[in-house]
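Hallway conversation turned thread

IA: we were arguing at lunch whether anyone had actually written out Protein KTI12 homolog end to end. Turns out nobody had. So, for the record, here is the sequence (228 residues) and right after it the structure tokens. Reply here if something looks off.
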Amino acid sequence: MALVVMCGQPCSGKSEAAACLAAALRSSVPDVTVRVIDESSLHLGRDESYKDMVVEKNLRGVLRSEVDRSVSRDGIIIVDSLNNIKGYRYELWCLARASGIRYCVFFCDTEVDHCRDWNVKRQEKGEPSYDSNIFEDLARRFERPDSRSRWDSPLFELFPSREEIVESSPVIAEAVSYLTKKVDSKTRDVKVLQPTIATQSVRTTEGNSLYEMDKATQVTAVFLADDI
């Protein structure tokens, strides 16, 4: 049915927004399965997952594989990770297009100074947080989504430092409407992605590493061919 890609700096309020969005969706369409995929659901820690580029790349691969296995025309998947690299968001967009479902990006646009303060407060309270060096590295490398790019569109933006994160937030209501609205010949404001040969994926078993390598190569080739 749909793939939602959460996006934001570390400690931007993204996970809280994802939880509110998931709750709002479950209330709106109780007969549809809504699942949140994040690091914790895969038993992965924050610092351990982002301590260096190799581990971070592996994390993205694990998340992408889980999304690939989970997307369908019958449920809504919310990817609650940083999704901070535009090339990775493109790969997730390709998975949505290969499945013929709706897609959107939900961006928690929080100033870095606020994110840094929230991270420090979480550290002091013993709550899930990032090592300060890891936080600064992730904040520096963050690539903002741009609604002009099809893999960042439609783009729903929330500003957690200036507005409360609740199920009734206007932007959450707007996203729920987009994700659940019935599509027919008269619908103009909802786009269901259509599969192409380049993005059509073949389902595989969890242990097929050759498939994962081949798929990553194909996605990269398409990405470069689109002159990004």
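OS: looked through it. The helical segments are 14-28, 46-49, 53-70, 86-99, 112-125, 132-141, 170-180, 209-225.
IA: good, adding that to the notes. Strands lie at 2-8, 33-38, 75-80, 102-108, 155-158.
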